[in-house]
Amino acid sequence: MTANFWDIVRYFKRYRNTAIWSITGSSLFEIIDLAVPYTVGQILNVLSGRSLDPEINSLVIAMASIFGQSPNPTTALIMLSGLIFVVTVLRAPIQVWIANNFHWEIALKSRRDQTQKAIAKILTLPIEFYDENNAGRIAGRVARGLANHMWSYPEIAGQLIPKVVRILGIFVIICAIAWWISAFFLVSFILVLLGSLQKLKGLVKTEENLDIYQENTESRTSEIITSIKTVKAFANEAKEYKRQSERLEREAKVSLWGIHIGYVKLGMVRDTVLEACQFVVFGAALFATFGGKMSIGHFITISTLASMAYSEIKPICLLAEVFARRYSSMLRFHEFMKQANGQDAAIALYPNTKYPQYRFAGKVEFRNLTFGYDRDRPVLEKIQFIIEPYETVALVGKSGSGKSTLVKLLFRYFEPSSGGILIDGTNITELDITGYRKRLAIVHQEVDIFNGTLMDNLMYGNPTATFAQVQEACAIASVDEFLHLLPRGYNTIVGERGVRLSGGQRQRLGIARALLVNPDILVFDEATSSLDYESERSIQLAMRRIQGIRTTIVIAHRLSTVREADKIVVLDKGAIVEIGSHQQLLAQGGIYHRLHSLQETGELL
Length: 605
Ligand SMILES: Nc1ncnc2c1ncn2[C@@H]1O[C@H](COP(=O)(O)OP(=O)(O)OP(=O)(O)O)[C@@H](O)[C@H]1O
Fold this sequence. Notes:
Blueprint: H1 5-11, H2 16-32, H3 35-47, H4 54-66, H5 73-124, H6 129-132, H7 135-177, H8 179-226, H9 228-233, H10 237-290, H11 296-337, E1 364-371, E2 380-387, E3 392-397, H12 403-410, E4 418-423, E5 426-427, H13 433-437, E6 440-443, E7 452-453, H14 454-458, H15 467-476, H16 480-483, E8 493-494, H17 503-516, E9 521-525, H18 533-546, E10 551-555, H19 559-562, E11 567-572, E12 575-580, H20 582-588, H21 591-600
Parallel strand pairs: 3-10, 3-11, 6-9, 9-10
Antiparallel strand pairs: 1-2, 1-4, 4-5, 7-8, 11-12
């Protein structure tokens, strides 16, 4: 999905009304400020004994009559000084208030809204997105996009637009005094702006490449952090360091020689052209004044305004440059936000959303199910078997045979290409996905631990569980075997900043967490990592306690667990090759028998 400039504009759409009046306010103040050089010019005319411009003269007469004075040079000077006081001293706090208050208010509020939307997007993206993009890449893209939008808004709304309006105002005033100077001014302004924009276009393209490079570097840094144990175990610190340094060097080359130098050259050419134009205007006005075609007051007004205008073009170009530098990362944020949601996106993001409260006996039927991540390459083919309520079924097969994929389909992370899954006779696609998933629970091979207390982690799926229920689940899952070893029992902080739990302890925590949900179907993905004997025995005990209470599906990597299952489904290359009890399958003398013999001789399944 591609994004464009209008996505950036839409980002702030919610605050359109405040934006319109605050930008108009800021722009008006930039115009009002222009009264100063004009008034100074008029003061000079008074001081040098020349006449005022007709409009100002009638204003002085009108004001003098209001205060009962006769119009003379003194009243004119008081009037003109009063005008300068109003547009400078009185204007200052109001202008700062609008700029600092409203522009930043919009920037910060939009950041809050959009961060919320980004979190919603993260929660609703299809699960395969996370197979293809790691945390560092996603987090980096979102954070850069949000920050750049936030910084850009006050610069564009509070500075760039008002400055452009100010330049237009200057053009109008110069035009009223000497149209030929204003024509030169306008042409030079447009040419400088078009030239700068043309050059910026090229630089934005290079910025885009830089952004992609940066994302790749961030992604690898995040991988290094999450896989630091592997990096260290292979003593690959130097290799990783070198690879990242090379990437940074490549980024520096692009940003220094491709982009930075581009901006420097652009600035050099632009500033020289601007100074030259200003000099031409100054010279033309000087000769016009010397030749008696212009008053000294108008000469001062024009040269001051021209200097103001040309000095405003520089910040306008600089603001455009800064925006260009941020542009591609903002677009990449919108590309991320436009990613299609997963088919489970309907899952409620708001806690109060109602969903049906299902209750299943737990009969699961895989009916002629075929599926492939890539539609042309099926990973599972014509899978057909039934799990009766409260049965324990073990899925067995070599790595890559499709066991996990079958479970992913049960959780509706993906839809089958043909066939389907029925629960108590109803196709799961006909059920509300939230209500349905609430009745399932899974214990992954690697149990995720959130930073918080052990209790928080146990109650993750069911925050309303009672203490007695927690204790019961912990007893079944053999969590209580290590509970007393933790310094503060249930209140011990575990996870990122707390006590480290071993693989076996994590799995037992995972089982207790799943049991607390009281699911109708429990899926247990046995840890492949070799657990110590004690942990393995505890987990087996826990599994034995669960059997017969609810439908249980075990992705088995150890045959010791499988032996106890009511039914064993042996998968090979995405198809069911054997199905039956441990004894039946041994008697068949097929794949299962071979796997069993291998394990008996000490080889892992
Ligand atoms: N997200 C994915 N996108 C594309 N292909 C995938 C994806 N996940 C798994 N596969 C492929 O699907 C096939 C089945 O994988 P699956 O993870 O289901 O096997 P498994 O039996 O659970 O293996 P293991 O025991 O190693 O976990 C494999 O060929 C794998 O490469």
